Amino acid sequence: METHHQHLLFVDFEFTMPQGKLNPQGFYPEIIEVGIVSVRNQKIEHQFSSYVKPVKFPLLSDRCKSFLHISQAKVDNGITFYELIELLNNYDQVAPNTVITWGNMDMKVLRQNCQLQNIAFPFSGKFRDLSMEYKKFFGDRNQTGLWKAVEEYGKKGTGRHHCALDDAMTTYNIFKLVEQDKRYLARPRPTTIGERIDLSKVLNKYAT
C-alpha cells in the first residue's frame, strides 16, 4: 500500500475553551498543546509534545483548565505559536507527508490561527481525517469519538485522553488497526464449509 512508504504525521492539538456564556469578545479557539507522532516505513521515527502559549487570549478559562487538566503555568512555559509553526514547517520540509488527524478540528483551528496571525499554513502535503474513514469503513451513522473507536476494537487508548501526544499515539494505533482490516477485507474470502453444505441442500431441492 502506498501509505507504507510515505511519511505519516499523526497530529493532535488541544485548544482553549471559552468559560461559558461570558465569552471574551471575539473569542476563537487557540492551540495550547501539540502532540505529534512521525511514522516512516511503518516505524515510529519521532515523537514530539509541548504546551503552546495562546496569542490572543493568554489566560485559560476555568472550564478549559478542568476539562483538559492543563494548568496556566504549563501553558505559560510552553513554546510560542510562531515556534510551533516553525516546527511544523520543519516536518513538512523533511519529506512529502500525509497529516492524519481524528476529526477535522485540528487542521481547521490551525488554519484559522495562522490566518489570524498572518502566518503561512505550514503543511503542503495530503490530509486524512481518520474519523471519517472509520465512519465509512464501519458504516457508523454517527461520528465516533477517538477513544470510543479504540474500545470498539477491544483495545484501550494510550495514556490519557485529551493529552495531545497520547491522543496522537491512539490515532496512530487505530490507523494501524483500520489498515490491517482493510487489507483483510480486500482479500477474496474463501467459501466456508457451511456455505458449501447450504449450497448442496439448495441443489438437492431442485434435483429431479
Mean model confidence by pLDDT: 86
Please list the strands of the largest sheet in the order they lie side by side.
Answer: 3-2-1-4-5
The portion of residues forming beta strands comes to 15-25%
CATH class: Alpha Beta
Structural class: alpha/beta
Could you say how many structural domains there are in total?
A: 1
| CATH overall fold name | Nucleotidyltransferase, domain 5
Please name the fourth-level CATH homologous superfamily.
Answer: Ribonuclease H-like superfamily/Ribonuclease H
> Which regions have little confidence, pLDDT < 50, spanning 5+ residues?
none
Instruction: Report how far the terminal alpha carbons are from each other.
Output: 50 Å
Taking the sheet with the most strands, its summary is: 5 strands, mixed
Estimate the helix proportion, in percent: 40-55%
Q: Write down how many β-strands occur, each being a DSSP E stretch of 2 or more residues.
A: 5
Helix count from the secondary structure assignment = 8
Q: What is the ordering of alpha helices and beta strands?
A: EEEHHHEHEHHHH
Globally, the shape reads globular
Rounded to an integer, what's the Rg over CA atoms?
Answer: 22 Å
CATH architecture: 2-Layer Sandwich
Domain Exonuclease: 7-184
Pfam family, one: RNase_T
InterPro entries: 3-5_Exoribonuclease, ERI-1_3'hExo-like, Ribonucl_H, RNaseH-like_sf, RNaseH_sf
Organism: Metabacillus herbersteinensis
